């Protein structure tokens, strides 16, 4: 939910800044005119690009407004952080440059410092937590010069920062703070200057900035509010890392006890005193967004730019979407600063899983009888089923599934049709447990008495409309499906795990069914003797009084347990 700030906190800027230019915000820091002068004289263009202001047709259509993305992912270090870091370092005195610099960061600031130190041929010691992913450590080392060093120390940011301060005390180096420094803030403020230069034909209504420590929001905000105060300046934070939101609400700096780490580039427990001072004056509103909002924004931005933003880099776009929806905005002109694209490749699977806002996740019960699967599926078809999980456990059967609807109205019509047919679906779209864990745990061990004639098979077939329906329609009615697991991952091949109960007398007919599937382009492998099936999907059976017991798993249905894969 968008957090509207009280006027006393700068939300409305009474009198629209009332001669803000030239008036000091507070005695401890530069006034507005000084900041504008620092922005105009910033030396960022020695190393930084004047990034594109990219019209986003997809986001524009989705929100009903004209949306532009300020593409800070185009910088050499794929993040806006280079601007502030370089502007701070280039303004060091000759003596300070000779002493060298220190920085503490687990992400984009570290890369900006390394790149700037190399460009200016000075020594830098960059401290990073030992838990920092290798991809980020390697990126910093790639930008660093021979005089610089990346030091992995501490298990938390606080421990690493303590080591940084100890180095400064011992060696006399200069700290380059990631956000709480006027020159860093002014460097980020050049983004605001460029936005005004690039929108001379537009009347911009609002600019959205991601917020970690507040340097970007402060710099962009103070420039825009001084030069063109009609533009709203809106900060965006992850809902579980909302240090600036809480501080502005309280009227004082609030330190969070914990922060979420999905948008790790903006996960800050405590904002800076200077950034807080400025944000109180220039920030019109704060918006907080969920992990799902961020993932959806990563997808939206990719569609419009073909660039995969990191979670923190997509915060502004996520906040823009939420703001437009909650305030029913139409025909406005919005700018979102896409602040970084240093995405860890290993995160893409999770992002893809959570980004699909067209996917509806439900739990539903069906009768434990032959043909019940296909009856349920016909209520969904021709919509794409993206997930289907089931394990026999008794009557009724519990199904965990998801499908893609073409619109909110289409989604509602499917759910209403299911209810009218007696299925009583449970909407799990807001159930975090279901989305994060439940979908991977559905099933478990089936009762022994229900698996004596069961065989387990994995199937592969082309991921195309109707393939799953054909699979179910051609399964003979006398074969009961006792396990079914399918999940779409956007590949060209669908992979389905199925357990089928086949009476001994019907095994030949089942083999004929497999041959039919092969003729239609399906491949299969019997998994009945797979140890995972034995350990996790079958109930252990105790020895009977004669000392003998039924085998812990059924014999292969295909006699040899053979497979036909890759046909």
Helix/strand layout:
Blueprint: E1 2-4, H1 32-40, E2 53-55, H2 57-63, E3 66-71, H3 81-90, H4 94-99, E4 101-104, H5 108-120, E5 124-128, H6 134-143, E6 149-152, H7 157-171, E7 174-175, H8 182-197, E8 206-210, H9 215-227, E9 232-238, H10 243-250, H11 273-282, E10 285-289, H12 291-305, H13 315-326, E11 333-338, H14 348-355, E12 359-366, H15 372-380, E13 384-391, E14 397-404, H16 408-420, E15 426-427, H17 432-441, E16 454-462, H18 467-473, E17 480-487, E18 493-501, H19 507-519, E19 523-526, H20 531-536, E20 563-564
Parallel strand pairs: 3-11, 4-5, 4-7, 5-6, 8-9, 8-11, 9-10
Antiparallel strand pairs: 1-10, 2-3, 12-14, 12-15, 13-14, 13-17, 16-18, 16-19, 17-18, 19-20
Helix pairs in contact: 1-8, 1-9, 3-5, 3-8, 5-6, 8-9, 9-11, 12-13, 12-14
Question: Would you mind describing this structure in some detail?
Answer:
The protein is 37% helix and 19% strand. It has 20 helices and 20 strands. The longest helix has 16 residues, at 182-197. Mean pLDDT is 85; it is low at 1-27 and 547-552.
């Amino acid at each position: 939910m968008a957090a509207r700030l009280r006027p006393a906190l700068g939300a409305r800027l009474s009198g629209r800044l009332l001669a803000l230019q030239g008036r000091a915000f507070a005695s401890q820091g530069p006034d507005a005119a000084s900041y504008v002068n620092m922005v105009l004289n910033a030396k960022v263009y020695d190393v930084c690009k004047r990034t594109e202001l990219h019209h986003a047709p997809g986001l524009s259509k989705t929100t009903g407004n004209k949306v532009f993305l300020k593409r800070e992912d185009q910088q050499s270090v794929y993040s806006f952080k280079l601007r502030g870091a370089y502007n701070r370092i280039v303004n060091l005195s000759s003596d300070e440059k000779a002493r060298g610099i220190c920085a503490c960061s687990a992400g984009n600031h570290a890369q900006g410092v390394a790149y700037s130190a190399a460009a200016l041929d000075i020594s830098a010691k960059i401290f990073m937590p030992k838990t920092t992913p290798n991809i980020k450590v390697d990126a910093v080392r790639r930008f660093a010069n021979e005089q610089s060093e990346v030091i992995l120390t501490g298990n938390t940011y606080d421990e690493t920062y303590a080591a940084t301060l100890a180095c400064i005390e011992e060696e006399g180096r200069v700290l380059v703070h990631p956000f709480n420094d006027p020159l860093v803030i002014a460097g980020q403020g050049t983004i605001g200057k460029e936005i005004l230069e690039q929108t001379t034909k537009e009347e911009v209504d609002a600019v959205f900035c991601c917020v970690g420590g507040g340097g970007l929001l402060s710099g962009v905000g103070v420039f825009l509010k001084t030069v063109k105060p009609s533009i709203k300046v809106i900060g965006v934070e992850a809902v579980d890392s909302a240090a600036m939101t809480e501080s502005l609400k309280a009227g004082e700096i609030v330190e969070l006890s914990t922060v979420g780490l999905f948008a790790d580039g903006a996960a800050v427990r405590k904002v800076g005193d200077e950034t807080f001072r400025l944000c109180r004056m220039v920030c019109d509103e704060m918006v907080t967004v969920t992990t799902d909002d961020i993932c959806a924004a990563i997808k939206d931005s990719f569609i419009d730019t073909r660039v995969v933003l990191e979670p923190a880099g997509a915060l502004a776009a996520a906040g823009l979407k939420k703001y437009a929806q909650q305030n029913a905005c139409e025909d406005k002109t919005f700018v979102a600063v896409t602040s970084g694209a240093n995405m860890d490749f290993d995160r893409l699977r999770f992002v893809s899983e959570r980004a699909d806002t067209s996917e509806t996740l439900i739990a539903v019960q069906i009768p434990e009888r032959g043909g019940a699967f296909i009856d349920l599926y016909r209520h969904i078809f021709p919509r794409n089923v993206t997930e289907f999980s089931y394990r026999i456990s008794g009557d009724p059967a519990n199904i965990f599934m998801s499908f893609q609807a073409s619109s909110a109205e289409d989604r509602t019509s499917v759910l209403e049709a299911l209810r009218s047919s007696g299925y009583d679906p449970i909407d799990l779209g807001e159930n975090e447990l279901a989305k994060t864990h439940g979908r991977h745990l559905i099933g478990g061990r089936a009762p022994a008495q229900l698996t004596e004639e069961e065989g387990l098979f994995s199937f592969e077939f082309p991921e195309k409309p109707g393939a799953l329906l054909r699979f179910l329609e051609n399964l003979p009615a006398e074969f009961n499906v006792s396990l079914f697991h399918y999940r779409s991952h956007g590949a060209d091949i669908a992979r389905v795990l199925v357990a089928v109960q086949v009476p001994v007398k019907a095994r030949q007919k089942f083999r004929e069914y497999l041959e039919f599937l092969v003729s239609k382009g399906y491949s299969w492998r019997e998994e009945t003797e797979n140890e995972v099936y034995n350990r996790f999907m079958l109930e252990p059976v105790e020895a009977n009084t004669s000392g003998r017991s039924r085998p812990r798993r059924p014999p292969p249905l295909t006699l040899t347990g053979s497979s036909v894969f890759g046909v």
